[in-house]
Every structure is written in structure tokens, then in C-alpha cells.
Amino acid sequence: MDVLPPQMSAKDEGSFAYFTMKNRAPQILIKVINTLQQHKNEFFEKLGEVGTEAEKKLLSLLSKLLNELQTDEPLLPLTDNWVDTDIWNQYLKYHHSLLNETNKKISWFQSPWLYVECYMYRRIHEALMLSSPISDLDVFKEPKEQNFLESQEAIRILCSYLQGLNKIENLDENQLKDEFFKLLQISLWGNKCDLSLSGGQSSSQTSSPLTVLEDLKPFILVNNMDYLWLLLINRKKMRQETFSVTRVDFVLDNAGFELVTDLVMADFLLASKLATEIHFHGKSIPWYVSDTNKNDINWVIEQLKAANTKCMSECGINWEDYFKKHSWVYHDHMFWTLPYEYCAMSQVAPDLYAELQKSNLILFKGDLNYRKLVGDRKWGFTVPFHQALNGFHPAPLCSIRTVKAEVQVGLAPGQGEQVAVTDPQWMNTGKYGIFQFDGHFDLA
Ligand SMILES: [Mg+2]
Questions:
Q1: Helix, strand or coil for residue 436?
Q2: Which residues span the membrane (predicted)?
Q3: CATH label of the domain that carries residue 207
Q4: Is the separation of the CB atoms in 284 and 336 below 8 Å?
């Protein structure tokens, strides 16, 4: 087998990985610490002295974490007792076994960026686990909810648009295709709303998500939407004779506005019969600030149900119903919050891999999924996506991602270089997007 390129690391000064660990990561921790301090009284009001003590413990653990990060201390084994604690500690041991003379410690600025960044969020979870009885606290709840509330107008427009498509059976194939492409692009650009990229600062959708699509088209660098359409429409046509179901999986990224765009897409897929069942995969612990947990989905549905606007409340009611009837299914799995690249999934989480193999199309939302798909490695821009997946092919899959980290494969020769000329920061801002499909899984 060919030697894989190295993973990105904060040891490359001037890289986005370095910038993230130097600036964004501490900023996120400081914001968490400040928010906890602001809500001091609530812990006492809810739990009395025990609450105050737990909050103090949590604050001291987070401050210690911040200090370790800022002084590039070695990564420590986890000391909590969660389902994945042993796996994380084995992973650390494994990295120790790889050390050589030139790279003497496993630390924030020496080790792979993907590993240390995931580790930071896992350490926040550890701090919570060790601060009973407030272990269930979601320290990112406030910014996630704020993103949803600030995006109200955009959400209303989307819900109203979706409701307007209720005569979907009357659309001819070309019209259906147009709507499919439109909602896919909304789901793509919804991925701009990322609170981890903005260091936890507000990142909401305040303009109409529909009117901007044409203007944004030049920023789609890889556009495999046609493949997705052909796959789904062909299955729909053949379903009567050959297939009984079409299952589409969403591996979710952010809660708030992006989540609504994904749910709208999922609703459309069912209504148009392009799919017959939808499976969502979220994170089981608070992750990368704005990533979706089960609680976030429930909260969004409750908010919509309670909205004064009919189109929104109807969406909330319908979506709750889909979950009840199991045409929508929510899954979480600890693998999504481990530091592994996805080519390790079949070894590390064979149950999850087997679950994904049942899918007819897996949509991976967002940047972290992309980084894990391609191993967060320093691939050349023109390396084929299929090659960078390094054997990860549970089912036909597509990355839907706005580019926020310095990894991108599958571009045309010269394309990456050309974009860099006009926009040197093109890989770090979320301004560019991709629909990158890999359907050659059975040829592997
Ligand atoms: Mg995210």
C-alpha cells in the first residue's frame, strides 16, 4: 500500500491548524468559563451548596485544561468513566508508541490536529463527568439556541417554501430536480453557520436563504449534485419492481439554522418519494460548540411547534410525527466523537459501519466529517476523493461541506491554485463549498 501523507498539525506554524490551537481553541474554552461564571447563581438556585461546589470544580478543571493547552503540555489519559474512556486512553498509548527522537511528546502543538482538537472537546466532557451533579450540562446550549433564534426569519422563509411545495406530486421530473438542487444548496450554505469557526461568536443566517443561491453558485468548487439526483430518481423509478425502500442517511454537523436546512431537505426527500426513510446521526456529547445532539433536535422541533407562524408550527408537528412513525430515525454513536479517521470505522466501530452499509446514500455534512473522511491529511488538491477515503466505502456517499480547514481533494488540475490567487484565505472561511460524491464503492 502507498504511504499516506502526514496528518495536519499545529506544529506547522502559520497553518490553520496552528491558528486554531493558538487562538480559536483557547477562545472557545474562555467563553465557556465566562458563561459558567455568569450563571453562577443558577447552580445555587437549582442545587444549593452542592451546585455551587460542582460549578467550582468544573471551573477549576476547565481552567487547568486551558492552561495545559496554552503551555503545550503533554496530553493526559482520561480519568472519567464514560463508554469511550478506555478507547481514548489506548489511542494515547498508541501515539506514544509512534514517538521517535525528533518528536518527543504527545502534545497540543506537536501531535495531529484532528486528535488534539477532538481531545479538547472530550476533556470538556471529562470535566463535566467529574463535576457531578451537573454532568448533564450542555456548556454550548446557549450559543446553539441563540443561532436558531437569530435565524428565525430565514427559518420562516424555508418552512414556508417547503409548505408551498405540498403539491409535489404534480411536479414534472425537471421541476422536481430543480427543487432538489435548490434544497441541497440551502443545506450546503447552511453549513456556513458554524460556532466553532467563529470561536463561539454569533454566526446566524439573517438573510433569505433562497434568493442568494444564484450568487453563491460560482463558489461551489466540486458539484456532484447530478450524481445524487440520478441515484435517487433511478431508484424511485425502479422501486416498484426492484427496490422496496430507499434509505438516505445524514451525518449531521451543526444545530441551529443548519439543522433546519437538513430537516427541510429530509422532509422534501420523503414527500417527493426520492427516499422512503431517513436516518440522522448526531453526537452523543456536546461537540465542536455547535454540533447537533438529540436534545438540540428535540428543542428545535418544540420551538417550531410553538411558533406563531403556521408554516413553522406545521413543520414542527410533521417532523415530530416522522420520528414517531420511524420514517425518520435518530442515531448516536460514540465513534462520531472519537479522534479516528473514518477508514478506521470498520475496525473500531463495526456495528456503526454495518448500520451505514444499509444506506443507499450517506450525506456527510460539514468540515469535521470531511476531515475525518480524508484522514485530515496533506493530500494534493487533485488526488481523487475515492483514493483519499482510503478504503472507507460503506455505501455511496457525498460530502456536503463549506471549506473551513486546509484539506481538499478531487479538484481539477490548477483549480485550487487558481482560487488561491484571487482569495488566499479560501480554505478557512467557509465561503466555498463542495458536493463531493463517491459511488465507486463496489469497485474497491
Ligand atoms: Mg460543527
A1: strand
A2: none
A3: 3.40.50.10880
A4: yes
Query: Rounded to the nearest whole angstrom, what is the distance from the C-alpha of residue 338 to the centroid of ligand 1?
Result: 14
Residue 415 lies in a domain: yes
- Is the same domain home to 212 and 68? no
Tell me the pTM.
0.96
Distance 287 CA to ligand 1 centre (A): 7
Amino acid present at 305: K
Q: Do 353 and 408 share a domain, yes or no?
A: yes
Between CA 441 and CA 86 the distance in angstroms is: 32
pLDDT, residue 276, reads: 97
Angle 182-184-188 from CA coordinates, rounded to 5°: 115
- CB contact burial 350-363 (16+ within 10 A = b; e otherwise): eebbebbeebbbbb
How many alpha carbons lie under 13 Å from residue 146 in its C-beta half-sphere?
12
Is residue 358 situated within a structural domain? yes
Q: How far is the CA of 273 from the centre of ligand 1 (A)?
A: 29
Q: Which residue segment(s) compose the domain that 219 sits in?
A: 141-438
Chain mean pLDDT for the chain = 94
DSSP 62-128: HHHHHHHHHTTPBP----S--TTHHHHHHHHHHHHHT-BTTB---BTTTSBHHHHHHHHHHHHHHHH
119, 163: one domain: no
- Which three cell numbers mark 128? 463535566
Q: Is the pLDDT of residue 48 over 90?
A: yes
Assign 442 a pLDDT band (cuts: 50, 70, 90): very low
* Residue 200 identity: G
Ligand 1: centre distance to CA 373 (Å): 15
Q: Which of 129, 163, 189 is the last residue of a domain?
A: 129
Going from the Cα of 98 to the center of ligand 1, the distance in angstroms, rounded, reads 29
My answer on whether 243 and 122 are in the same domain is: no
Give residues whose Cβ lies within 5 Å of ion ligand 1.
Answer: 253-254, 288, 291
Where among 96, 129, 162 does a domain terminate?
Answer: 129
- By the 10 Å C-beta count (0-12 exposed, 13-18 middle, 19+ buried), 94 is classed as exposed
Number of domains forming the structure of the chain = 2
